[in-house]
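#random but structural
TW: two for the price of one
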Amino acid sequence: MKKFLLLWFKAYRAPFLTASIAPVFLGTAVAWYELHQFNVVIFLLALFGTIFAHLGANIFNDYYDHLTGNDDNNPDFTPFSGGSRMIQNGILTPRQVSRAGLIAFVITAVIGIILIGYSGRPALIIFGVIGIILGYIYSAIPVKLAYRGLGELTIFLAFGPVTVLGAYFVQTSHISWLVFLTSIPAGLLVALILYVNELQDENADRCAEKNTLIVNIGNPQKALTLYRIIIFAVLIWILGLTLLSYFPYWTFILIILLPKIIRMIRISTRSFVHIKELLPLSAETISFQFLMTTLLAGAFVFAGFIR
């Protein structure tokens, strides 16, 4: 059983779930801050529904990147890029992988139906359907948005507005401008994870005609300049909205991440020769996304208690 669970843990790329868990926390936190509404059952159903949607998207991405030859012809794969390697290493067949993706999406749908029935909010189906569709067509043939230069935008939308607004809506039954504003940095941070990992896949992506933003830029140093610009844009967005009193002043707790931000910027200014030299930047970006988003959520929760 332990080997079985470990196999599927790797196949579904479960360590990347932090990217979807944190936005659910954020949307729920804003609902608490604005309206003091929080239902733990609804939160858990929304969280697990999002998790299984993310797992399904992950494993379907592996399946279709195998069909296009992207992962099969990638000698520079790392723990953060190049897929789970389950198909490439002969551990799972493509059919098993596609079935696993379908199972994850079916579980997502079942959880969604239960959530709609429990919360009494049928409009929630809009967020669920959009989330599943975006997760699937990100790499699914023939749409394969990631191959058409739309992968980063797709990830931004799926993990930003769709997830954050969905988590808020299921608690409150409506959408506010505040939760939309919080969804922007949440989506950018997850897109930044994809972006930095694409640096490691640049050669394989170019050979497979996967026109990621990195491939389209065509210069690693220019790409890393944009990486830093996105970090500054997120910081300016959050700081600006806090100073304008849209976000609670408890948001200034994010200053504790300043040493991490400086470290990320320093790493991104280095000249890279080998792909694996980018691994520390990927690791820092993944943890930064989770910490930044959950700390932002925590600020809203705490402000809601004393509001």
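TW: number two ↓
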Amino acid sequence: MTLAMISSDLESTQVRRAELERLIRDQVANYAPLTRSYVDPMLVISERKLRDNARRFMAALPRVRPHFAVKANPDPRVLAIFKQEGTCFEVASIAELDAMRDLGVEMDTVFYSNPIKSPASVKHAAGLGVQWYVVDSPEEVVKIGKIKQDAKLYLRIDVSNEGSVWPLSGKFGASKCGADAVIEQAAALGMAITGITFHVGSQCINTNNWVEGIRSAREAFSALEAKGWTPELLNIGGGYPVEFSESDPSIEAIGRVISEELKTIPSSIQIMGEPGRFLVGSAGCLLTQVIGIATRDEKRWLFLDTGFYGGLMEVADKFPCTIVSQRTGEAATWALAGPTCDSIDVLGDHSLPSNMKIEDVLFMPNSGAYSTTCACDFNGFPVAEVVMVD
């Protein structure tokens, strides 16, 4: 690498950092007026940003049909916007199936990607007209076969989750040996597996995971063809990250790598993906208020009106996050905690102004995904209200 190339990379990194910082400053400035009438936590979601994210994804991955992972944020207004933008949907439960019905989605475009489904949910999905069902075990094939013999099945294979902030391997995904068992079970029941899927892990910053996943899928297609089945589908899953820092790859950078590898997949095969966090994460900003300050020995605590149970589970698990205060001052380390009486409701140490006060409002950008959906009203504290803005 030449000195000029190093200089160019450094300049590009600095530009990206400055742009991300500007976006956060603009978000905080735009939502600051909401603090004047603050009562309870709120998740503010920008319609413009939702639409921009959907368009960016489709432009970056032109061959990949996006199916929004409903679990990331099932707010009906969010779903309606993505439907208007032309995305399809991926579901995991009866409630999400009903959300699709209420939205008027064409159910043959809805994919049921939860590898373990209750018999009741399979019956419900079949009754609504869902065609495609994921499997990763022989038992799931048997279960679906008893209810919907003509179901279109796609097999989830295990791939590397290295470089993902929230790995998903282990619980789901068939190994090579496991995939063979699933294929044999489907053949024995007279059912066909005509699709392959994988998941690289949530907030994946290792683009090679998708490359290896696509290559593994090609090998799996050969196993399907050996049974006389014609591959129809490659689902490259989710994991597309929010850009928390300049070191996180953009969707455009990820798209270039994936698109190059997809050139090896025949045009007869439909390619789809399941973006969740990328589509909705950066569109949301969570507002929370300081309700208490405590000093215990040398440690200073900020208690907020929402926490682990209120939608900040990922923050508590050291997931990347940005926390911004309107107050300025010398930075200090604060231990953040939620309002409940449970000792698990702790969000770790964070740098904030040393002069923080009770009733100050904090802003958490990039919180549009897996916040309100992972929240409950434990101890009687309210879940953040979702507020849509332009």
